[in-house]
Amino acid sequence: MGKKQGRKAGNSKNKSASPPAKELSSSPATDQSWTENDFDETRVERFSPSNFSELKEELRTQRKETKNLEKRVEELIARVINAEKVINEMTEMKTMTREIRDKCTSFSNRLDQLEERISAIEDQMNEMKREEKSKEKRRKRNEQSLQEVWDYVKRPNLRLIGVPESEGENGTKWENTLQDIIQENFPNLVG
């Protein structure tokens, strides 16, 4: 065996003895159990020309994973921002609903007051109608009484056609004429 082959064989032994690259950062317990020599050997092993292409590939995959993680983080940040906006909008809506509820309560109270006033006015109107009915009855009764009084007062003011009116205060002529008419028409009444 040559020196190079021996190194390769030694490297392959070191590879099998040391944990893979992904395991290096996998758990803190593993990191603590390594000694400084193991760490130096791993470092040397990583930078050896045979592992360079593997390291390069691993860097590419880690870069892709990092980009994917960055995109994921940006998406999560955007979602958080949208969630904050939604929360702010919901808070505003909650405030608006409180204001609307307060206004509705105020309107409800005002409506209750208006209903009470309307009820009081309706009661007053009903009372006024009752009073109006009693006034109407009194008015009709008064009109009837007035008519009766008028008829009574008007009765002595009858005019007899063909009977001359008395002149002056002397009403004897008229009384005599009336007595004559009654005797002619109703002879049984005078007696």
TrEMBL record:
<dbReference type="InterPro" id="IPR004244">
    <property type="entry name" value="Transposase_22"/>
</dbReference>
<feature type="region of interest" description="Disordered">
    <location>
        <begin position="123"/>
        <end position="145"/>
    </location>
</feature>
<dbReference type="GO" id="GO:0003727">
    <property type="term" value="F:single-stranded RNA binding"/>
</dbReference>
<feature type="compositionally biased region" description="Basic and acidic residues">
    <location>
        <begin position="123"/>
        <end position="135"/>
    </location>
</feature>
<feature type="compositionally biased region" description="Basic and acidic residues">
    <location>
        <begin position="54"/>
        <end position="70"/>
    </location>
</feature>
<dbReference type="InterPro" id="IPR035301">
    <property type="entry name" value="L1_trimer"/>
</dbReference>
<dbReference type="Pfam" id="PF17489">
    <property type="entry name" value="Tnp_22_trimer"/>
</dbReference>
<dbReference type="GO" id="GO:1990904">
    <property type="term" value="C:ribonucleoprotein complex"/>
</dbReference>
<feature type="region of interest" description="Disordered">
    <location>
        <begin position="1"/>
        <end position="70"/>
    </location>
</feature>
<feature type="domain" description="L1 transposable element RRM">
    <location>
        <begin position="155"/>
        <end position="190"/>
    </location>
</feature>
<protein>
    <recommendedName>
        <fullName>L1 transposable element RRM domain-containing protein</fullName>
    </recommendedName>
</protein>
<feature type="compositionally biased region" description="Polar residues">
    <location>
        <begin position="24"/>
        <end position="36"/>
    </location>
</feature>
<dbReference type="InterPro" id="IPR043636">
    <property type="entry name" value="L1_RRM_dom"/>
</dbReference>
<feature type="domain" description="L1 transposable element trimerization">
    <location>
        <begin position="110"/>
        <end position="152"/>
    </location>
</feature>
<dbReference type="Pfam" id="PF02994">
    <property type="entry name" value="Transposase_22"/>
</dbReference>
<dbReference type="GO" id="GO:0032197">
    <property type="term" value="P:retrotransposition"/>
</dbReference>
